[in-house]
Amino acid sequence: MKVINYLILVAVILAYPGFAFASSTEIPLEQINLDSQGVAVHGNDVVSYFKGEAKSGSVQYESNVNGARYRFGSAENKESFLDNPERYQPQYGGWCATAMAMDMKLDIDPQSYKVAGNQLYLFSKVNGVDAREMWNKDEANLKAAADKNWFRRIKPKGDKKFYNLMQGDVGVRGYDLVSYRKGQPVAGSTQFETEYRGVHYLFASAENKSKFLADPEAFLPEFGGWCATATAMGMWLDIDPLKYMITDGRLFLFSNVDGKDARQMWLMDETNLTGKADSNWVSRISSY
């Protein structure tokens, strides 16, 4: 029954006229772990990791993608990479995945790696301690933390083009963001309106407005206020402001199309969908 409901909700979302598909984008160059010559992954062949063995690349088979230089062990691997660079590029710009979960950038040992879910994760090895071991002990939680920290590092500042806005650049359908944290979302008022990064937010009271202004990032919704489930599917779908969840301090909003609450799909596979939504949102916003 859950599978049937899942498929019905997917079909409803796909049929809804207000969605758009995500597009592939590159990570800003300044966020990628490069050596002094602009070479990524210490010159290792990123395609070789997906073949089960980390091998050094050669300048003979070098390619420049968006300013980062990648080296390969063969013409075949270079061609595979160029056919789909995002398929092979490491997560978190090539920084240590475990360190990123702690909100730090740490260089990697190119021989310490893991391929999971068709994604390449690299790790540091300091004083004989392999950060991969820590990652494997709590992978789901560390990945969620690393995804969130990476997103925070690369998201654009002050650009509202990616956000779900009403007329007048009002966010969250005019609902009071602070009220979600109190367990009962309510509509805001233009009497208590403020602007943050080009987006207008409405609040139900002066107190809530003040709380928001003291730490806006603590109250903002994930994925620019788009439906979290749709974002995991690579789409941008409007929300029902009364359909929401708060998990690990993060506010997720959901659509409710033809009576189908997208939270139902989210709850069926929350960890996996959170990771997919984080990845799709990073791709979307890092293009500008």
Summarize the structure.
The chain is of the alpha+beta class and 288 residues long. It has two domains: 2-23 and 158-285, no CATH class; 29-154, no CATH class.
Helix content: 25-40%
Radius of gyration: 21 Å
Query: What is the overall number of helices?
Result: 12
Class by alpha and beta content: alpha+beta
Order of helices and strands: HEHEEEHHHEEEEHHEEHEEHHEEEEHH
Distance between the termini: 41 Å
* pLDDT < 50 stretches: 1-8, 12-25
- Oligomeric state of this protein: single chain
Largest sheet: 2 strands, antiparallel
Number of separate strands: 16
What is the beta-strand fraction? 15-25%
The mean pLDDT is 87
Spatially, the strands of the biggest sheet line up as 1-2
Descriptive tags:
288 residues; alpha+beta; 2 domains; two-stranded antiparallel sheet; 12 helices; elongated
Task: Please provide a written account of the structure.
This protein is α+β, with helices and mostly antiparallel strands and about 290 residues long. It has helices at about 1-15, 45-50, 75-85, 85-90, 95-100, 130-135, 140-155, 175-180, 205-215, 230, 265-270, 270-285, and strands spanning about 45, 55, 60-65, 70, 110-115, 120-125, 125, 130, 165, 170, 190-195, 200-205, 240-245, 250-255, 255, 260. It has two domains: about 1-25 and about 160-285, no CATH class; about 30-155, no CATH class. A two-stranded antiparallel sheet has the order 1-2. Helix 7 packs parallel to helix 12.
Helix and strand layout, with pairings?
Layout: H1 2-15, E1 44-45, H2 46-49, E2 55-56, E3 58-65, E4 68-72, H3 75-83, H4 85-88, H5 97-101, E5 109-116, E6 119-123, E7 125-126, E8 129-130, H6 131-137, H7 139-154, E9 165-166, E10 170-171, H8 177-181, E11 189-196, E12 199-203, H9 206-214, H10 228-232, E13 240-247, E14 250-254, E15 256-257, E16 260-261, H11 263-268, H12 270-285
Antiparallel strand pairs: 1-2, 3-4, 5-6, 7-8, 9-10, 11-12, 13-14, 15-16
Helix pairs in contact: 7-12
